[in-house]
Design goal:
Layout: H1 8-41, E1 45-51, H2 56-62, H3 64-68, E2 72-78, E3 118-120, H4 128-134, E4 142-144, H5 152-157, E5 166-168, H6 176-185, E6 190-192
Parallel strand pairs: 2-3, 3-4, 4-5, 5-6
Antiparallel strand pairs: 1-2
């Protein structure tokens, strides 16, 4: 009885299929998670900005709707709670529609958006508990917490954000001591109070 070796093509076809499937999963799974997160927080946002994925010819061939599933979200502005805004603030009289206000639970969806570089939580119902979710965004560079219920305890969770360059904490429960402690860990951080 003689053993016959399989033909090289029999190895090549499954290998190519596995490579394509592997590449597809590396794109499809993160895109699905991102799309789910965006869908979950869309009701609470005023504006979401994205970096287009792929070359222009591919975007033109597949269409904007299909390609938007893999665009990388880099900036999110959450809708402010108009009751928290001073009466003289220009947003009080703006045409932005009322809708659900972001809270600590809303922010759990941010973990599926690792490419976020900018988040504005201005005048939302965020507390120190919500900052735990924000502190998971390792690429975050710009964060606005003004008008929230964040204190020094929540601020110290931001020590994990090694790329954070700009932080706004006006009208919060954050103290000078909390800011100084955070700036010791992140010396390049500019804090606006």
């Amino acid at each position: 009885m003689q053993l016959r070796l399989p033909r090289p093509l029999w190895f090549a076809v499954p290998a190519v299929v596995l490579v394509i499937a592997g590449i597809g999963l590396r794109v499809v799974i993160p895109a699905y998670r991102q799309r789910s997160a965006v869908r979950e927080i869309t009701a609470c946002t005023v504006r979401t900005q994205v970096h287009p994925f792929g070359p222009k010819w591919l975007r033109d061939a597949l269409g904007k709707d299909l390609m938007s599933a893999v665009d990388e979200v880099y900036s999110i502005d959450f809708m402010p709670n108009f009751a928290r805004l001073p009466r003289t603030h220009p947003l009080v009289w703006s045409p932005i529609p009322d809708g659900p206000i972001a809270n600590d639970d809303t922010l759990s969806a941010l973990r599926s958006l690792p490419g976020l570089k900018r988040v504005s939580l201005y005048c939302t119902n965020i507390t120190d508990g919500g900052i735990e979710h924000v502190s998971q965004l390792g690429n975050l560079e710009d964060l606005t917490l003004s008008g929230t219920d964040v204190s020094d305890r929540g601020l110290l969770l931001l020590k994990r954000l090694k790329h954070l360059k700009q932080l706004r904490v006006k009208s919060t429960r954050v103290t000078d001591t909390g800011v100084a402690e955070l700036q010791q860990v992140l010396p390049g951080l500019k804090v606006t109070r």
